[in-house]
Amino acid sequence: MTDTRHALIIANDRYADQGLKKLKAPAQDAEALERVLHDPQIGDFDVEIVHNATADLMRRRIQAFFNDRTRADTLLLHFSCHGLKSESGELYFAATDTEPPLLAATAVPSQFVRGCMSGTRAGRTVLFLDCCYGGAFSRGAASVRASGEVHVLESFAKDEPASGRGWAVITASDSMEYSFEGNELAENSGPRPSVFTHAVVEGLETGEADLDADGHVSLDDLYDYVYSHVKEQNPHQTPKKAAELQGELHLAHSRRGRIKIAAIPSPPSLRAALGSDEVLTRQGAVLELDRRLQHPELPLAEGARQHLEEIARNDIQQIAGLASEVLGKIRLSPSPDRLDFGMVPRNSTPQKRSVTLHGPPLARHCVAQPKQSWIRVDPTRNGLDVRIDTTAEGHLSGDIMLKGVADEAVLHVEAVVAAAREPDRTKPRPQPPPTPAEPTPPSDDRRDTVIIEPTRPPRPPKPPPSTPAPTPARQARPDRPSPSRRAPALAGAALALALASVATLVLTLQRATVAIIERGDQGVGGNVEDNIRAYGALTPLIVCLITGALALAAGAYARHELETGREHYAKQVASSTHTLVSVAKGLAIPALVLAVLAGLAYLVGSPHW
Q1: What distance lies between CA 109 and its chain's CA centroid?
Q2: pLDDT at 246
Q3: Average pLDDT, the chain
Q4: Other CB atoms within 10 A of residue 290 CB
């Protein structure tokens, strides 16, 4: 989309006349529509909003919007307000100062808007009407009443454009969705006008309006999407469209775009091998398709992928399983799959984060679609560079959809945007120590030369005894381990505790064995409980239980630190930490089990032996 694109949004939700109901949606709708139209990744429009304007100001802004344009311009005008029909059947757009008995003087006629559209030199003009329509204002009456059809499109289809390549009008409805009774709009007479604009915003923002999945949202795509959405929300409301266009008008980029690659078919010999009755022959053909699947020429690899999918669906289990295994090589595998920018000052430029896509060229060929407008994505040779917009404060959480030829993945992005800290002006700034100067005899020009002594800087002057020493605003916190070292330290502690648990278990078993042997030598007069206590077998047993439990707790905490602070750890450090925790767990659990069994045996058996 190389044209220059401009949009004017007129939203009126407050009216001086008591007979015109105050609307709830136009202000919110205008902000949402401005966001998606202005987003360079979606509409890339230069957007202006006119909110709660008088009729005179509306006419001025509308005419100025259509003046001084060229064929390279695409114009979009959006109305979100009341629409009123006069007794003669002419349609008017209500302003904040509109008086229904004086529509010609206090409202904006639809023919004025149509005249501006016909007279502009812009290449294409699009008009969206999200209006709730009232009927004719009868002379002598004190209310505005519905009178059936408004025939909005007829008001804009009478004249052909004077220049340019065409025009289009899409209206939320062509009938009286609202009725006026007395001085107030009936509450149960129709839907909220935001149903239409909400559908427009949702279709553009999500990319779901790209019905043909060609990477662009055309006018026809958007109308079909909005029509289905509005009819689903309110079956009694029917959007309408009229257009005189040459060619297709793309209103926005699509975030939903799919990967399309023109596949090169496999050679006849390979296709013949795939259709062979011999299992080994078909198996060899699948291996050949595996080789072609990893080819750097994407059309060749795409042809192999399509054949493998067909085999995985239709062949016997042995061959289908092999084809499915080969197809697994082109799954999207971003590393990392989660990006946390941490705390970022507002309006700053945070460092970009790189994401690597693994696998053959066909697996790395994908489209990255940010779901939130504050996420910025730039493709690189082996993956993506991700940046964030820091203009708004708060916790940012969003996703990037990665869509490949046959697979999808989600890359999660988080950041906390905070206001930039201002320097604390209450603290005295440290002053540099004064430099001693040795006076020298004045020269003829009576200027002094100061020689700085670099070897021994003078001590700063001590404050007078009566002046109390300034106290810091915050007490220094004790040193804590860096997040990048906390998990490995915990893993090491877990392993040490696990080893201690095993060692004390061995000591317990040795002492218990000696005590039991001695009890056997004593005959009938012996007591195993006295022997075990005499040899001190209970103390290492208790230590074994405690150290084993602590080892498991430290290992669990180390895993938690790795998961919550993944961005602080290098891949090798994380792998080593996982290994230490696994070894500690493998030692501590058997030691705890044996210690518990030994304790139960002592408690149950000692009174009887």
Answers
A1: 43
A2: 77
A3: 78
A4: 18
